[in-house]
Structure formats: C-alpha cells, structure tokens
Amino acid sequence: MARYANPLVQGTNSLVNLSQITEEEMKVGSLQAAVTRWPFFVFLGGSMFCLLSSSICHLFSCHSRCLNIQLLRMDYVGITVMIITSFFPPIYYIFQCEPHWQLIYLGGITAMGMFTVMTLLTPSLSSGKFRAFRAMLFSSMGFFAIVPAIHGCIVNWSNPHRSITLAYESAMALSYITGTLFYVSRIPERLKPGWFDLAGHSHQIFHVFVIMGALAHYGATLLLLQWRDRVGCNGTV
Ligand SMILES: [Zn+2]
C-alpha cells in the first residue's frame, strides 16, 4: 500500500506544485512579454550616437577651420539627441499605464529637441554671440524634465523604489546643470588664458559631466526596467 500511497501523494503534490509554478510562470511570462525594451534601446542608441559624434568631432576638429565648425555643430547635436532619447525609458515605463501622458511628454521633448537641433544646424546661430542662447536651449530641455518627474513622484508616491530612482535622476540633473555652467562660464580657461588649451578646459569638463549624467540615468533606467518586469498595469505581481 505504502508503495502505491507515496507515489499518489507525491503525484498529488507534484500536480499542485506544477499547477502553482505554471500559474506563476504564466503570470511572469505574460508580464515580461508586455514590457517592451525599445525605449531602453532608444536611450542606448542616442547615448552611443552622442559619444560617437563627440569622439569624431574632437578627433578631426584640428583638420581645418571649416570642418572644425561643422564638427562642433555635430558635437552639440549629439548631446541634444542623447538628452531627447534619455527621456524615453523613464517616461515610457513610469506612464506605461497612461499612454496619453507618454504622448504628451515624449512629444513635447521631441519637439523641443528638434527645435534645438535646427538651431544648432543654423549657421547664423552657431556663433559665439549665441552661446548663452544655446545654453538656454539645453537647460530648458533639462528643466522640462521637472514636470514629468514631479508627476511621476506623485503617481508612484508609495513605491519603495521612488527614492532611489529619484536620487539617480537628481544626480543626472546635477551633472547636466554643472556641465552647462562650465560651458557657459568658460571656467577655468578664462581665469588663466593659455593654461588649459590642451587639457582641463571648460569643454572637456562639460563632456565629463555629460558622461556622468548619462551613467546616473542608465542606473535609474535599469531600476525602472526591473520594476516594470515585475509590476504590470493591473497591480503588483
Ligand atoms: Zn565636444
């Protein structure tokens, strides 16, 4: 009897376990299938484009005066593309269950970014006279993020990951703002002209802060992706 009883009991347990696992796997499987990766890849693609255009610009900018001007424009276009694409993962994943907000925020930043790119590619606006205007365009794209950030915080107030994601994004904002301040003020070369012609001038410092900002944003994006892999629109898994 014992020989038959055990397999039956085990079989019943196995069936229960199997049904539980299958149910859980189906839940997780269905949610994983629902979380798309394209906003994450848009950000990665934009960052790669930014770093590539910056590398090409600074590698070949010594070729000629004419090419130098064209390449510097590409440098700023690259940064603009990275700022626009940075918005895609947080806006998409935070407002995944409210597509109209995705459309409003992503449409808004894309329109602002396209205007900035057009301004950067307009020769008359690329001179030193419009340096502050260009800085204002970069800053306004950064400040635009405050609106969805506050909105996202209110919507996810009870989410335990809110503080850490906010800390990452604040680090990103601080990096971009500090970088822009160096860009506008032209410190330290204006204090000691000629000392920083090869290394340590404001443009290099600006790029370092842009990379630091992108890294902080990458950290925040990974957290958002992990969260959306577990939590769907209909509640916690
Ligand atoms: Zn540069």
TrEMBL record:
The chain crosses the membrane at residues 40-62, 74-95, 101-121, 133-157, 163-184, 205-227. Zn(2+) binds at H58, H203, H207. It is a multi-pass membrane protein. Keywords: Membrane, Metal-binding, Transmembrane, Transmembrane helix, Zinc. This is Uncharacterized protein. The keyword Transmembrane applies. PANTHER family: ADIPOR/PROGESTIN RECEPTOR-RELATED (PTHR20855), HEPTAHELICAL TRANSMEMBRANE PROTEIN 1 (PTHR20855:SF115). It comes from Eucalyptus grandis. It is found in: Membrane. One of its GO terms (molecular function) is signaling receptor activity. One of its GO terms (cellular component) is membrane. GO terms for biological process: response to hormone; response to sucrose.
